[in-house]
Amino acid sequence: MELGAVVVVPAREDFMLTHEAQAHDLAASENSRPFYSSRMPILGNDVLRSWTERVRKLGVQSLWLTSNSPDESVDRSALAEFARQGVERLLVIQLKSYAEMDLADLLRFHCESRNPVTEAEDARGPLGVCLRDYLALHATRQKSAFPSAPTDSGQIPYQFRGYAKRILSARERQELVGDGLTGACAMRPLGTQIRNQVWVGEGAKLADSVRVIGPTYIGARTIVHAGATIGPFVSVEHDCVVDCGTTMERSTVLPYTYLAPGLLIRNELVDGGVLEDLSWRAVADLRPAGLGSRIQRRESRRQAFHESDVLSRAGRTSGWDFARSSTASQPWLRVQL
Amino acid sequence: MNTIPWIILPFPCGSDLADRRGLRKDLLIALRVSGSPVIVDFSSCGTLNHADIDLLLECVAQAAGRDTKVLFVAGSRVNRVLLEVTRISSLVPVFNSVREALAYPQIAVENDAEVLPASQFQKPGSA
Questions:
Q1: Interface touch A284/B81, C-beta < 8 Å
Q2: Which of A262, A275, A290 sits opposite B81 (nearest CB)?
Q3: What are the helix (H) ranges across A85-133?
Q4: Which residues from chain A sit within 8 angstroms of residue B52, using beta carbons?
Q5: Are the C-beta atoms of residues A260 and B87 closer than 8 Å to each other?
Q6: Residue A292: closest CA among chain B residues belongs to which residue?
Q7: pLDDT tens, residue by residue, A92-129
Q8: Angle at the Cα of A277 from the Cα atoms of A275 and A283, rounded to 5 degrees
């Protein structure tokens, strides 16, 4: 039976939908949560690549990459097209989580349980990974509706008991950083280990007086100015600037972020000029006070994440061989594995 | 029993320039001269900008080395986060509400403390 694979990168609107279930989280939050792209690196790693590696191990030669359209989680008719083109079984991965999942085991379970649809979930719910058989895809085409999370009654979900984190949640993202730094999961920081539990990416510059306390990761081309203290449990991703005397603990700084001098960043996630406090669950804008900002990329200005961005980001970072779908109503890329 | 008046001043955030200047003056005088504990209330501030941070630091500098006790009421979690990020909260106690600030041991003087809201605050010597 021919197996196809699709990786769906959630768009901004879908991110908000995924958090509707966490009503208490949103109620506790003072501001709307910022959107963290699932393509943002974690300890320098691309979560998409970790999934594609797992797909490749299944023996799948290529996969399709797309992003959600704003009004629905997946371009439903496009997915149903797979069935028409002879794909009898489809693996759909919503890029919302990092899970150290053996997809072969998922496939085996799917075959043995004879579900038309098998959704992988852990104790906290669906992980955004599911297998669909021809019948389910065909039904999708007939109904022109493709539920983003299968709700078919009587389906037996695949219970995943391994390591998994939802990467769109700032809190779980920070937990993943901590686990990666301490070896509690398979993800490892992408850089050179300069001493025990301290990794530095290529081209990073640290002033002599910078104090780095492990476990900590400092990404490629990041600059840390004099007197700063970084760590423990900190990940400063690539192309950031941490100005003089700023202290960071148990926090993540996403790429292309500038942090002003003398700040105390503790238990927070900073993305450009926006800071999310993981303890208070509050989102603060650092820009009016001049405390932080987005560093403009040299080659391109950062844009809101949308469908076309999938293409550019994937192409820039991976060097994969892409082919663009000419039939789909939204950008679809075929990635040769 | 000895009564200690304390003063609640709204932080001049988001006001127009004249209001801001006036409130700023009152605030700094209260800190410098009154000797009464001062509660600076940010409840009306949506978010703090760089001028606000400057003024806050000025407040802290004015209060430093004096008997004047200064407390900040963040009014929102966003403001509280900003006060922590800028380390101002390590210099001045920060509370979520005026009620919490009034319960602060060093400022609560039983129930006979005299409250001087900002509108009734008189500059020393002007009475």
A1: yes
A2: A275
A3: 103-113
A4: 289
A5: no
A6: B85
A7: 999 999 999 999 999 999 999 988 889 999 999 999 99
A8: 55
